[in-house]
Amino acid sequence: MSAADLIAHYRKLKAQAATSLTNDAVSQTLIDMALEALDFLVAEANVVPLTSRVAGKTYRAYRIGERISRPINEASFIADPDGLTKAVKSFSAAKLKAMPASDATRLIYTMGMAFYAALDVLKDDDKKTPATHFEILAARIFAMLFAVQPTYAIPLQASAGAVADELPTDYIFDLGTGKPKIHMPVKASTRERVIQVWAHQRILDGAYGHGTYKGVLVALNETKLDRQRLIVTEICVPLQWRVYQKYIAQMDRVYYLDPPAAYLALAPAITVKPFCELFSDLSHFQG
Amino acid sequence: MSAADLIAHYRKLKAQAATSLTNDAVSQTLIDMALEALDFLVAEANVVPLTSRVAGKTYRAYRIGERISRPINEASFIADPDGLTKAVKSFSAAKLKAMPASDATRLIYTMGMAFYAALDVLKDDDKKTPATHFEILAARIFAMLFAVQPTYAIPLQASAGAVADELPTDYIFDLGTGKPKIHMPVKASTRERVIQVWAHQRILDGAYGHGTYKGVLVALNETKLDRQRLIVTEICVPLQWRVYQKYIAQMDRVYYLDPPAAYLALAPAITVKPFCELFSDLSHFQG
């Protein structure tokens, strides 16, 4: 496999997702990408054990030549291609809701990380492709669970008498009359721009009233790899998050695939949870 | 002159600014940098006329070999080294307040643009150095005018009983007891991250009460150069700004060195002004 093969898959995924996130073809492409990426890593790359400075977690990376992948949480990664081939059969709304939460975490985390690791060892410094793939993976899961196609903008009237305009946003899922809508930003990691998430939630609360849009941030991880010393750390700013939540707007939930303990500890001020708990939280959103 | 010479000046400026923005040595370094940069451009670079798609404004660039500078507004630029040598003698609080506004604009705009253009033709894709230089230039002018050293963080208590923490911010100028404080973000251009400006203002309003901190955004320009076709455009999103101002927080002023008409037209919803009007607005802040 080459970087071009991976990018060809990614282009197909983007085109499918742009047409409809409720189409099962999106799931099939996500599955194909994960399986091919993991096969490639096992066949062509070396496993590099990393020194973890993250309490309670161990990480590995893959390496080809000078290129080393991002860190992968060992406990949440299905490193064996046969295991992943079996696991992906459960990538459907009904099965994700029914299966043990830890299995759901491993399946979804691996479907993301196998592709990102393969891309990391095939291509230099591509941040946009993994970020967009992760957005599609997360949005596909929401679209499956709620059977709703998201939109990407909200109508807003900036001033009395002004022409109505649209504010571009992250994903918006409208669950139907009388139910809350979901405002779902997705971030591979939240460094740098996360204040925008709270600011957009503030605009939604101001324009439509508190509770009309529930803010649900979905994030992958906050790991950082020192590529020279092969040390993994987590970069978190929990006090800044507390300030955003207190003064800008209230996010309803934050779901992490590899949740940092520093953010999990923000509850009850901010409800930060492992991603798999989404599957037992559905009545919270549909109620 | 080489890129290394310019960067050496810049390092000196950064060190001086980190020590004290009220020190006149900062002005002298800013002046030295502008004069040397303009001498260099006149001696070594070619002037490239640009096609302007910005109504009422004409732009030039400088070029050495394959490297072309950012666009420079002809009407606001002192292109003649003798002219700039005379003009910089007015770079003091007393003289800036007393001189015609158009002369003040030309002086300050040229002190920024000469350096950025020289850097552009000497070095590839350095965005951080011009952005930081522009922050120091703007902050030095505020520090001169108000005779106040700014700070870069505000104390905040994120939750009852929690340890007080600091929120890193842009410049904060405390004008003294009973007077408003100035929250001054500085942006070379506002693309991408400007929502952060309103979000920080919201935190200040929430934590300290409306009116305690006056939000003053200082920006250079919103120009974009098509380097193949040599066409200058301005990229503006006035409807998004209206939404931020209505729903997130209220910025007190926005000052532009090269103000886009689309943002000037936001008044009275948002008071956007040419930078030089700052010099006649001082009583608004000191009142």
Structural key phrases:
homodimer; about 290 residues; globular; 10 helices; 4-stranded antiparallel beta sheet; alpha/beta; 7-stranded mixed beta sheet
What is the topology?
The structure is a homodimer of 287-residue chains.
Chain A: H1 3-19, H2 24-44, E1 46-49, E2 51-52, E3 59-64, E4 67-68, E5 72-73, H3 81-87, H4 93-98, H5 101-122, H6 128-146, E6 151-156, E7 165-174, E8 181-184, E9 186-187, H7 195-208, E10 213-219, E11 223-226, E12 231-234, H8 238-247, E13 253-256, H9 261-264, E14 272-274, H10 282-286
Parallel strand pairs in A: 2-12, 8-10, 9-10, 10-13, 13-14
Antiparallel strand pairs in A: 1-3, 3-4, 3-5, 6-7, 7-8, 11-12
Molecular structure report:
Chain A is of the alpha/beta class and 287 residues long. Chain A is 44% helix and 21% strand. Chain A is built from ten helices and 14 strands. The first copy, chain A, has helices at 3-19, 24-44, 81-87, 93-98, 101-122, 128-146, 195-208, 238-247, 261-264, 282-286; strands at 46-49, 51-52, 59-64, 67-68, 72-73, 151-156, 165-174, 181-184, 186-187, 213-219, 223-226, 231-234, 253-256, 272-274. In chain A, α1 packs parallel to α6 (128-146) and α2 (24-44) crosses α5. The interface between A and B is medium-sized, with 25 and 25 residues.
